[in-house]
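Dear H.,

Thanks for agreeing to be a second pair of eyes. The structure we're designing against is below in token form, covering all 1888 positions.
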């Protein structure tokens, strides 16, 4: 448009070059006003013409370049027109004209005033955060914008927050989609009544201007579109045009936002057909318009659409077109004949890439209503706009404009109709699109707004044939990718299926259309029309049959398949979305009796389609071998409608079942799937690759099972209940290929199955029968019972979280079914069957989620192994369920051993399915059960406990479901004589159980042991001898029986079928060449099922005669056989339970059981073991033994490791006091001995072969985060709340150091403080030691190890070889005996003066570095490591870079950092005494050695040594040197703890105890003086004078130097000489309320001032001399520590209240030295009184560090931060994050805030935490930890109501803070254990 507008103005400028643009601008407003006036007159023709002319001029689309080169060049040149000023101009004109001369903004405001805002209608695009409330929604697609959601009341509702996938619109105010109770405050008012009428003249101009404007837009769209060359329109061209049109479309969008009044004008304009006709007809003389119309026609044509000039206009056909538009007969004809390959335009496009594939098949068009696909006529702007929107592949802006108009009801209807009219065109465009994903989303964005509204959907269905259109369009879409089916009869198959490899299926391109279809079927009125329309049903079944048999798998028998295709994802998705979901939609409307007719229709056409399918694939009776398809949607439609008919509509099942022959065909393919599942699990399909396992798993997976396996099994149940049971049973064993195994002979040949697969296939067959006979999902269970059974099955496999349960329980996929996840019934059933386990925390363990675990009574009564087997995706889950069941029985004392799966009573069968139980009472099954029992008893090969378990289960099922059989009781024992069939007399299991079988004739290989024996002579005469004279009694009985039955049925139905069937059966089962080796043998059996069971009991219990009938003792037991004693147990229990049931059902059985038990049972026949078998047995035994040995070793190792883990890993448990022998060794050992965890040798650490501690060095800023107020800081959640770091410990120390550096000599400043509050180096160890040379070779091996480690070996990182704790350095252990420390600790009687001299002398000795030994090298290298651990900025504080003072300061600060951190780990005080885990892990002793060694290299000149100033009086020097040289720091400004560390580390090691005490005593005097000075500065002038006076009186008492009043008064008088106190009137006086200065308060103040020093000193003493710390109460901490440190004289009496001053021990007279100290300050405050005072007040009371306090509800954080803009780049970050230490808002991974390749989070972690960062990711609710160059996801501290995390906010449920988790996080931060506890670390490459 831009280009055109430019051209328009350009055209004028050529004719009147002088007409300046400004001239136009000036009179725009005037012209507009004049025109408005002209148009307001009653006769406005003149005005109208004038306006038209003006618009013609301004909005003309004529561009000079249209005459340039034709076609593409024109477009290119058009692009060149560029968005010039002229296009702006055109928009300006429009705005002016609309406003009619006034200001445009005022005009907007005026129009808004008339907005009847009944609907919100806010339109959003992908990734917008919206809400969905299921409680308020009528349509499942309902959504609300955040604003409407928060303003409505949804407390207690089932809502969630979600990120929009495709975009959407807010439904607030629309009562068709949601209940009115959920409307927000703004949209509750019903409109129209109270809103004034719009004045006519307000919008008059709009009505004139807008049609031209929109036409202009359409002209541009026509101009800009060039029919693509062969390769489709290039995205670039289309995007270019759209970019140029951006302002115009935005202008329209803004108009829609003006409210209802403007929207109705727009609706008028868009739908007015006359306007459209006048402007676009392309007639008339305007060449430009003509050209544009031609382009439009070309575009239509190229889209495969015709422009019906005079044909019947589509949609207004004669009424008969209602149903016959899809003529039924046409379709039936169409299916059978395969048309020639069409060459419509789509095919040409696909032709090129389709060559390699199998040729596509097209159905001949038959008489499908072509008009649906091909005719389009546009009659209004709206229709053509939508046409271009589709042509341009749904540009976002256009979509938003079209949707913004929807609140206008009239528009909504018009737009929906237009959309439907273009539906086929949308499909065609979508298929060709390269960006089908984006386009799909945009289509659904629109359609979901239209079709979710039932009223609208019904209207369009009636008026525009919506259903016909949708079904036809879907059919057409799928037709483009059909191939010939290879199922069954590859050559002659006429069936076609979709090709799952096609992009259409692989990329789910069909989903927008399918989802629309599902959406409209959810409306009852629409669905009913569908179900009534026979033509539609035929078409739909035709569509479904395209999926029948797709993705066929052929079993690879020789080579492994080279390429595993992954098409099965597409196949399963397609069946679920395109077939199953519409099916569930239809089923949800067939719930009541009145809807019977619908079911009959569906079933009828479904059966017809199935019959066609069987014909098309040439199916007779045998499925082709080694093929399976998991996709039988027609079978499943049929099954589900049958189920619904019986369950809800009370239809008679037989009335909708087909004849027997059809049932036989129907059961074949579902049965084939069940057999194939068993084959796949038996590894018979391994050569097909993993994908076949994937298919087997998907088939039963929770989202698919109720549309796949459940209907299949139900269909088989229906078939089984109606077919001959013998036929069915033999079919099953034949399908599972285990017929040959079912022989009495001990050896057999299986012609169709390898021996190694026999066992698992037999298990599979029996398990399938058990499932078939016990499952009641569709046979009579109510919905709630089903839900309960599903839930119990899932919970028995594993404890589950609430969300995984919701996910695992197959809900009805149709959202309107009523059982919504999270619905009332779900919660009530859950609380009935499960207990909630709240999330727990092991201190070192992983984060647990809130779990549900089955209640005890559920294990006891409801655990159903059958349901578990049916629902397990992984076989191991069945085992897991059994293990949990076993554990429950052990724990509750019900059964100690290994139980068998319990037998569970079933709900009763629905009467329609009673026939199913005939399977249990048919001879074939009884023969199989008998044979298997016999084989198990005789220990034949390939049988397992599982087989026995299933056999017994089937027997028990038969007894539970037996027919009444008393009549049989009276028959005499002459039963056997009457028996003609050699196996069993009748078909009732109860009576067959007692039937004895004497001899059986079998075919066996000649090598079999049976052949050797002579057969008894009586055989021939014995009428029980053999079955037929055919020989192989069993084998052929099964197969032949089945053939016979099948033949009978077929013969009944048709005679010619015989010829087809006969030849197939003859050669099937005698494998070529196998016959000769078989020979006939006769076995003597003489058993009945009952006798076999009793013998089995003996065998299982391992005792002779172990079975004793319980009713002999207690006859009652037969009357009530349900006895808890038998409900849980192993095989023995199961046998007893069965015998009891058999006895209680028939007196004869009872008698026979008693008889059998009376005979003394002969021993079980010994097995004939051939040598070969013996070998294998030996091998087995040996293997078993080896396995046991291995288990034992492993267990031993595990327990060793466990006990070790307990000592090494306990982070928070002080109970385990297994001291690592590092710091505390027994005195009798002369030298400390260390174990090397690599080479395992132990020995002392020596100069040549030093041992070291495994340590982790990390920089830490935790100390710097201490604050001085107790109230923890909150995370800011509004703009006002900000966190400033002024009051943190780090900030305060920084300020102090820089203040000192301003006024004093640099080198002296660096000795007066400690650094390391930020970026200090913390050293921790796991306590294991290793030789340093061993460590080096260990590192070498790690370097060569190619395994991907979570750490970087090049940075020196490794894991401790023993406990796998993360580490990065080795701290050498100083050689030396531990005994000398005892010598050094003996108290000496030297006076304090002597000791002071000794200390000074020792410090004066230069510390030469020890000679070059291995030890010293290691010490140096570890020092280097320590330095490199932290960044340079945290080490260099000196003004002269690289000065040695820097290193000196850094080294003693490392010691300080470690002591301070240990104090924090102990809770900030030492009251708890010595029992702290920190102690046993501490490496401070070794660290001190290393530091001391290096500090001694820097000797302080003796005149600068602070020791002198502390212990000697110097002559005072009034002028203090020359002025330009900065003075030294006054001693009272020194940090006493730093002085202590300097003094100690300057001494030669090891240190003597009395020297240590001496240093502490001296420093305490300084500390105490500092406390007094600070106190004096804090109080007011009058207080000071009072104290000065009071203290002066006591000055001459005996203990004056130990009385704080005296000292205080002296300090005050000394300091009063300077200017220190003269600054009164500052805020200082207000600091403390004067009345509070009581003696007690002052004593407390002094103690609190000194305590931190005493704590650090005591810790130091504890580490250096290994003395235990005493524990005490908080109030006595001071005195306890003081006496522990030797400050308190031993004779100190405890009677009077304790005063801190009594600890003072002045080395020189107190007054003199105080005078000297005060003098330094006096001379400084002469010049800088303010700073002098500030430096005296040291804050010593730091609270423990904490993370920021988080709000209770996560939503408060999310709503504030997810839209917050970043302060650096001012954009809203894609992944916003916030630091939990300081509250800074950062962009995660944002390249916008990168600095020198470091992303913002990494950068912040270095600045805020010296390499450790803790960030909350706003959009994911997860916490991420950055530690140095690695990161890990820590988990979430926000959990939902069920105790679960919601990572990435996928579920969107409300989340609440979990305080325990947050505490764990904070604990790990403070204790620096992130590296040890979190396991999954990865490198972040600075990109976070």
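And this is the sequence the design step returned. I haven't edited it by hand at all.
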């Amino acid at each position: 448009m831009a280009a055109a507008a430019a051209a328009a103005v350009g055209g004028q400028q050529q004719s009147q070059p002088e007409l300046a643009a400004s001239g136009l601008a000036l009179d725009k407003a005037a012209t507009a006003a004049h025109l408005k006036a002209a148009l307001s007159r009653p006769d406005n023709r003149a005005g109208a013409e004038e306006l038209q002319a003006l618009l013609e001029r301004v909005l003309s689309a004529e561009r000079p370049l249209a005459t340039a080169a034709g076609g593409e060049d024109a477009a290119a040149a058009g692009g060149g027109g560029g968005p010039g000023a002229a296009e702006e101009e055109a928009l300006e004109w429009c705005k002016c004209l609309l406003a009619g001369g006034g200001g445009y903004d005022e005009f907007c405001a005026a129009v808004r005033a008339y907005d009847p805002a009944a609907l919100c209608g806010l339109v959003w695009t992908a990734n917008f955060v919206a809400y969905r409330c299921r409680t308020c929604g009528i349509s499942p697609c309902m959504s609300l914008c955040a604003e409407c959601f928060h303003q409505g009341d949804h407390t207690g509702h089932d809502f969630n927050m979600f990120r929009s996938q495709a975009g959407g619109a807010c439904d607030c105010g629309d009562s068709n989609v949601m209940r009115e109770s959920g409307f927000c405050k703004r949209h509750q008012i019903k409109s129209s009544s109270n809103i004034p009428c719009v004045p006519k003249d307000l919008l008059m101009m709009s009505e004139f201007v807008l049609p031209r404007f929109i036409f202009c837009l359409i002209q541009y769209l026509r101009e800009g579109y060039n029919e693509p060359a062969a390769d489709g329109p290039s995205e670039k061209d289309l995007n270019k045009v759209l970019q140029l049109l951006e302002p115009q479309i935005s202008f329209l969008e803004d108009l829609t936002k003006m409210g209802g009044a403007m929207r109705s004008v727009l609706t008028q304009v868009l739908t007015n057909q006359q306007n459209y006709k006048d402007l676009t007809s392309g007639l008339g003389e305007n060449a430009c318009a003509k050209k544009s119309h031609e382009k439009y026609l070309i575009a239509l044509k190229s889209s495969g659409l015709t422009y019906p000039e005079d044909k019947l206009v589509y949609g207004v056909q004669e009424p008969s077109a209602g149903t016959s538009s899809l003529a039924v007969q046409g379709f039936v004809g169409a299916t059978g004949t395969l048309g020639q390959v069409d060459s419509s335009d789509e095919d040409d496009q696909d032709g090129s890439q389709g060559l390699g594939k199998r040729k596509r098949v097209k159905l001949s068009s038959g008489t499908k209503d072509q008009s649906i696909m091909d005719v389009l006529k546009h009659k209004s702007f709206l229709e053509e706009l939508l046409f271009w929107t589709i042509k341009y592949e749904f540009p976002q802006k256009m979509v938003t404009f079209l949707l913004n108009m929807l609140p206008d009801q009239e528009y909504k209807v018009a737009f929906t109709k237009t959309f439907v009219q273009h539906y086929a065109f949308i499909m065609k465009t979508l298929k060709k699109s390269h960006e089908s994903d984006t386009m799909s989303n945009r289509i659904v964005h629109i359609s979901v707004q239209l079709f979710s509204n039932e009223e609208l959907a019904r209207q369009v269905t009636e008026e525009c044939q919506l259903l016909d259109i949708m079904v036809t369009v879907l059919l057409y879409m799928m037709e483009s990718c059909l191939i010939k089916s290879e199922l069954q009869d590859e050559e002659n198959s006429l069936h076609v299926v979709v090709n799952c490899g096609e992009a259409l299926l692989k990329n789910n391109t069909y989903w927008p259309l399918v989802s629309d279809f599902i959406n409209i079927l959810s409306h009852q009125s629409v669905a009913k029309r569908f179900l009534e329309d026979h033509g539609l049903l035929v078409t739909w079944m035709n569509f479904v049959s395209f999926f029948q048999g797709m993705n066929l798998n052929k079993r690879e028998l020789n080579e492994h398949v080279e390429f595993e295709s992954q098409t099965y994802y597409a196949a399963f998705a397609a069946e679920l979305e395109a077939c199953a979901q519409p099916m569930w939609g239809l089923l949800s409307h067939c719930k009541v009796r009145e809807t019977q007719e619908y079911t009959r229709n569906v079933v009828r056409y479904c059966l017809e389609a199935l019959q066609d399918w069987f014909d098309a694939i040439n199916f007779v009776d045998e499925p082709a071998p080694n093929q399976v398809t998991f996709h039988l949607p027609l079978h499943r439609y049929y099954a589900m409608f049958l189920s619904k008919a019986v369950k809800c509509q009370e239809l008679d099942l037989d009335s909708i079942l087909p004849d027997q022959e059809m049932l036989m065909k129907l059961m074949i393919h579902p049965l084939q799937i069940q057999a194939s599942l068993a084959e796949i699990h038996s590894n018979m399909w391994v050569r097909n690759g993993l994908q076949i396992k994937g298919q087997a798993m998907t088939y039963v997976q929770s989202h698919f099972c109720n549309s796949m396996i459940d209907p299949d099994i139900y269909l088989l149940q229906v078939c089984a209940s109606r077919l001959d049971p013998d036929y069915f049973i033999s079919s099953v064993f034949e399908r599972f290929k285990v017929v040959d195994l079912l022989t009495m002979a001990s050896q057999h040949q299986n012609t169709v199955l390898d021996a190694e697969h026999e066992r698992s296939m037999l298990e599979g067959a029996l398990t399938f029968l058990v499932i078939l006979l016990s499952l009641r999902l569709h046979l009579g269970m109510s919905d709630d019972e089903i839900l309960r059974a599903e839930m119990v099955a899932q919970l028995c496999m594993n404890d589950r979280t609430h969300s995984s349960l919701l996910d695992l329980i197959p809900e009805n996929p149709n959202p309107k079914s009523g059982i919504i996840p999270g619905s009332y019934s779900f919660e009530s059933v859950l609380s009935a069957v499960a207990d909630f386990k709240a999330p727990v925390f092991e201190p070192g363990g992983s984060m647990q989620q809130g779990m549900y675990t089955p209640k005890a009574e559920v294990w006891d009564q409801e655990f159903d192994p059958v349901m578990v087997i049916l629902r397990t995706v992984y076989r191991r889950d069945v085992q897991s369920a059994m293990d949990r069941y076993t554990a429950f029985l052990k724990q509750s004392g019900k059964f100690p051993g290994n139980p068998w799966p319990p037998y569970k009573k079933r709900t009763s069968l629905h009467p329609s399915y009673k026939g199913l139980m005939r399977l249990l009472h048919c001879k074939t099954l009884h023969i199989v059960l008998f044979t298997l029992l016999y084989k198990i008893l005789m220990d034949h090969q390939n049988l397992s406990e599982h087989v026995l378990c299933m056999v017994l289960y089937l027997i028990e099922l038969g007894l539970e479901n037996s027919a009444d059989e008393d009549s049989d009781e009276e028959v005499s024992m002459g039963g056997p004589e009457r028996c003609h069939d050699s196996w069993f007399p009748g078909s009732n299991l109860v009576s067959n159980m007692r039937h004895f079988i004497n001899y059986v004739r079998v075919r066996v290989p000649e090598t079999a042991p049976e052949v050797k024996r002579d057969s008894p002579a009586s055989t021939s005469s014995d009428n029980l001898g053999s079955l037929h004279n055919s020989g192989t009694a069993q084998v052929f009985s099964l197969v032949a029986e089945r053939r016979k039955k099948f033949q009978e049925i077929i013969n009944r139905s048709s005679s010619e079928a015989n010829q087809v069937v006969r030849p197939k059966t003859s050669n099937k089962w005698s494998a070529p060449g196998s016959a000769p080796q078989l020979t006939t043998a006769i076995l003597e059996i003489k058993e009945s099922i009952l006798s076999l069971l009793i013998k089995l009991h003996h065998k299982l219990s391992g005792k002779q005669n172990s079975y004793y009938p319980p009713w002999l003792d207690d006859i009652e037991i037969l009357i009530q056989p349900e006895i808890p004693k038998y409900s849980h147990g192993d095989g023995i229990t199961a046998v007893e339970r069965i015998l009891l049931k058999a006895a209680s059902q028939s007196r004869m059985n009872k008698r026979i059981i008693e008889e059998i038990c009376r005979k003394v049972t002969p021993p079980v026949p010994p097995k004939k073991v051939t040598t070969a078998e013996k070998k294998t047995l030996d091998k087995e035994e040996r293997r078993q033994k080896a396995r046991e040995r291995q288990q034992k070793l492993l267990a031993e190792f595990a327990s060793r490791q466990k006990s070790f883990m307990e000592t090494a890993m306990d982070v928070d448990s002080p109970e385990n006091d297994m001291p690592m022998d590092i710091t505390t060794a027994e005195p009798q050992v002369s030298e400390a001995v260390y174990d090397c965890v690599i080479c395992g040798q132990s020995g002392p650490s020596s100069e040549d072969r030093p041992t070291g501690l495994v340590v982790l060095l990390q920089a830490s800023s935790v100390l710097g985060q201490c604050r001085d107020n107790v109230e923890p800081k909150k995370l800011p959640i509004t703009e006002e709340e900000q966190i400033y770091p002024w009051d943190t410990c780090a900030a305060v120390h920084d300020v102090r150091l820089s203040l000192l550096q301003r006024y004093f000599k640099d080198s002296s400043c660096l000795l007066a403080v400690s650094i390391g509050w930020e970026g200090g180096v913390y050293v921790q160890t796991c306590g294991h030691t290793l030789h340093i040379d061993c460590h080096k070779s260990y590192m070498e091996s790690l370097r060569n190890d190619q395994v991907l480690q979570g750490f970087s070996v090049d940075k020196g990182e490794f894991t401790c070889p023993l406990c796998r704790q993360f580490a990065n350095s080795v701290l050498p252990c100083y050689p030396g005996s531990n005994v000398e420390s005892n010598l050094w600790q003996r108290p000496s009687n030297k006076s304090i003066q002597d000791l002071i001299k000794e200390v000074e002398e020792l410090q004066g000795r230069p510390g030469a570095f020890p000679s070059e030994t291995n030890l010293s090298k290691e010490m140096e290298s570890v020092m280097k490591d320590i330095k490199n651990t932290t960044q340079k900025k945290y080490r260099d504080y000196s003004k002269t870079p690289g000065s040695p003072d820097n290193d000196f300061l850094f080294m003693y600060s490392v010691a300080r950092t470690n002591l301070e951190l240990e104090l924090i780990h102990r809770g900030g005080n030492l009251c708890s005494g010595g029992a702290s885990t920190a102690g046993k892990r501490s490496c401070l002793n070794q660290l001190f050695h290393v530091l001391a060694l290096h500090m001694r290299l820097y000797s302080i000149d003796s005149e600068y040594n602070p020791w002198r100033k502390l212990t000697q009086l110097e002559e005072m020097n009034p002028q203090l040197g020359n002025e330009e040289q900065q003075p030294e720091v006054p001693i009272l400004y020194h940090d006493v703890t730093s002085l202590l560390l300097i003094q100690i580390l300057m001494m030669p090691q090891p240190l003597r105890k009395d020297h240590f005490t001496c240093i502490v005593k001296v420093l305490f005097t300084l500390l105490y003086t500092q406390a007094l000075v600070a106190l004096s500065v804090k109080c007011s002038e009058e207080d000071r004078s009072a104290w000065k006076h009071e203290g002066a009186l006591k000055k001459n008492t005996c203990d004056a130097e130990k009385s704080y009043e005296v000292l205080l008064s002296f300090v005050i008088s000394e300091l009063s000489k300077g200017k220190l106190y003269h600054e009164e009137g500052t805020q200082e006086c207000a600091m403390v309320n004067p009345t509070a200065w009581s003696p007690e308060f002052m004593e407390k103040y002094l103690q609190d001032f000194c305590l931190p020093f005493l704590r650090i000193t005591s810790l130091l003493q504890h580490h250096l001399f290994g003395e235990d710390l005493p524990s005490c109460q908080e109030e006595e901490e001071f005195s306890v520590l003081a006496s522990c440190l030797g400050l308190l004289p031993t004779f100190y009496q405890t009677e009077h209240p304790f005063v801190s001053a009594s600890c003072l021990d002045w080395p020189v007279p107190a007054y003199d030295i105080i005078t000297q100290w005060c003098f330094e300050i006096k001379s400084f405050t002469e010049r800088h009184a303010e700073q002098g005072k500030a430096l005296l007040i040291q804050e010593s009371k730091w609270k423990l560090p904490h993370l920021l306090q988080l709000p209770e509800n996560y939503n408060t954080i999310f709503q504030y931060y997810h839209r917050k803009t970043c302060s650096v780049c001012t954009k809203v970050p894609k992944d916003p994050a916030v630091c939990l230490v300081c509250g800074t808002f950062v962009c995660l991974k944002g390249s916008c805030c990168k600095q020198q390749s470091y992303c913002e989070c990494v950068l912040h972690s270095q600045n805020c935490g010296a390499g450790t960062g803790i960030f909350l990711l706003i959009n994911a609710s997860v916490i991420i930890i950055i530690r140095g160059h690695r990161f890990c996801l820590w988990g979430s501290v926000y959990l939902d109501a069920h105790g679960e995390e919601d990572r990435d906010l996928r579920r969107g449920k409300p989340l609440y803070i979990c305080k325990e988790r947050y505490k764990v996080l904070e604990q790990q931060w403070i204790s620096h254990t992130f590296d040890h506890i979190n396991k999954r670390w990865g490198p972040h490459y600075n990109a976070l």
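Two observations from my side: The chain is about 50% helix and 5% strand. The chain has a mean pLDDT of 78.

Warmly,
E.
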